[in-house]
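Fold Annotation — chain and its backbone
Encoding — discrete vocabulary of local shapes
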Amino acid sequence: MPRPTVAQLAYGSCTVVFSTLAMLLLSRTSSGPAVAVVAVAALALGLLVAMTVPAPKTPEATEASETSAASTASESPAPDGTTASAEQNERQPVAP
């Protein structure tokens, strides 16, 4: 499992703190079990927010997707019906 990013930690922590304060102030609870329910709900909400923050793409994944896209795009049908790569279809400079 990958480690959480700084953005995920920040968004999740802020969500837990602010949602706990908001729920405690809005519900006006003072009993122990009610505070525990609010705390568990805030932790669940913070976890949900942290997991939905998009993770940055790793350089390996970006290069792999670019390479696979380039290899499929570079193959084009040759006049005889076979597939030729971009290197084979590339025009060569003509000497003057």
Observations:
- The radius of gyration is 27 Å.
